[in-house]
Amino acid sequence: QVRLVESGGGLVQPGGSLRLSCAASGFTLDSWTVGWFRQAPGKEREGVSSISKSDGSTYYVPSVEGRFTISRDNVENRVYLQMNSLKPEDTGVYYCATDVWRIDGRLLGRGYWGQGTQVTVSS
Predict the structure, then answer these.
(1) Cα three-residue angle 43-25-116, rounded to 5 degrees
(2) pLDDT tens, 88-113?
(3) 88: phi then psi, degrees, rounded to nearest 5
(4) Which of 10, 71, 98, 100 places its Cα 20 to 30 Å from the Cα of 30?
């Protein structure tokens, strides 16, 4: 079956780092543009980063630019999100999704979605 499973979330102090993983099964992830989204309590889900299926170009929203890095491992059929210098406002459930488009400055995921992994940044 087609599945996306996120992992790597947890509790981290401000300034700390986490590496999230998005593992795909049932399909080849490198044939898709993939993105990471997050949803904080009481807020709408927002896209934070994407990586192209063609040239591997990446995109980051300004709030995470310079702190987060999205990457692929095509052998393992995974996409990663390295998160450094974490802030409390980075707290939320993080999701990966396929078929990601950028329209009017917002990321939209039209394909498959995972169930999310919790990231909590707190002292």
Answers:
(1) 15
(2) 999 999 999 999 999 998 999 999 99
(3) -55, -35
(4) 10
Helix (H, G, I), strand (E, B) or coil at 121: strand
User: Which residue's structure tokens are 């990586």?
Assistant: 51
3-state secondary structure of 88: helix
With tokens 């980075």, the residue in question is 90
The two structure tokens encoding residue 102: 């950028």
What is the tens place of the pLDDT at every residue in 11-55? 999 999 999 999 999 999 989 999 999 999 899 999 999 999 877
Cα torsion 12, 13, 15, 16: sign: negative
